[in-house]
Fold this protein.
Amino acid sequence: MLLTRPEGQLRATCQLDERTRQFYWHLASSVDLGVARPLLGPDEQRGLDDFSFTQPPVIEAEVWGQLQGRPELGIRGRVALTNFTFRGESASGFQTGLHYTNLVLQLLAPRLQRGRQQLNADGLTADFQARKVYLTNGFSTTDPMVVARAIGPPTARSLEPFRFLQPPTVHAHGVIPMEGEADADLFFQVEGGPFRWLNFRLPQVAGDIHWAGPRLTLSGVRMDFYGGQASGSASFYFDPHHPGTDYQFTLTTANTLLQSLMADLATRTNHLEGRLSGSLVLTKANSEDGRQTEGYGALELRDGLIWDIPLFGILSPALDALAPGLGSSRANAAACSFLITNGVIRSDDLEIRSPAMRLQYRGTADLQGQLNVRVEAMLLRDMPLFGPLVSTVFWPVTKLFEYKVTGSLNQPKPEPLYLLPRIVLMPLHPLRTLKALRPEEPTLTRTNAPPPARP
């Protein structure tokens, strides 16, 4: 049989058993699939509605079934599609072998192209009764958001914060639900970049992802991190009945360039320098409620200039007045450990060291940037050999530069804890002190000479 339509042709051979009502077709088609709609059940028709074609697919297939009783349909063949969309996502080409029976569609070695991007698999099985899709040995160089939007809006919303500016290389396998996300159980291995998440911009990232229902888990994450290297893991829980997203994560970094990192985290320009290493562990957090944040961590900085950070630069003007350059000297090292409880960060051992002074900080900062900190400057404490002795001599100055700091990270408000009497500060300015203590000489009043006596 030859059927000609405006868009193409259908060549067919048909056999029909009048006694059993069984049929068999052999088809070679380039016509609109809509002509086969009456032969499909409700589930198959809904699957067909997900597609939109600009030109008919090319199909060679065997079709068999039974006309009476419960309709049964079996299909085996090959399909090639060109310039079509699936759930609104476009593709330039698709080729696969297929087998369909008992509401189960198997795609054998499917290959999809989006220009130069590709999406392949060894197998893809759609169970229309279970409403699940099973993926075997998937491989992709296409944009992950294209796949997420094709799966459905909830999946796209879950992956929206994670952006690859260039499509990464992805290996995948697992279960994709046709409806909702409760039955999702997908595993990914991802490598690529540049990558964006929140304010972070990373040139390269790699790691493993497990999507299981409402939970997304990242493990073995490795990344180029602002001139250094970083690694970590994370877990996100997307509960539609609970505000925000619950999450946990760990991050460890080494040799990060402080200036590059702060350029993404802060809006204003900075003149920061140094290499940052450390770790951050959030054991509990929620994207909508920072008061639920719990965790801990530690940081180290080498060879740094950090005085453009307002909290660390609050004493610089006063120290520079004491000795030019004292308040802006390069820090040999800085280190701290901290705890996060109910959204409040606390550290009792933040210390910044330079040859000219040592700064110690103790106190808290909440996630909105509000401060309650005590800071102390010890002059010349780390001078080789004589540092402790000189620091003891300068103890009055240390007390003079002990402050309580409130306000915010961007606008800290320092308040001195001690006001020392002048006699305590005498050793610091000997010439000025001696001059101030010297008795004032009596002021001589100039008078005119008496007039000469008259003879």
Confidence is low (pLDDT under 50) at residues 420-441, 443-447. The chain has three domains: 1-86, 97-225, 232-434. The first helix runs from residue 42 to 49.
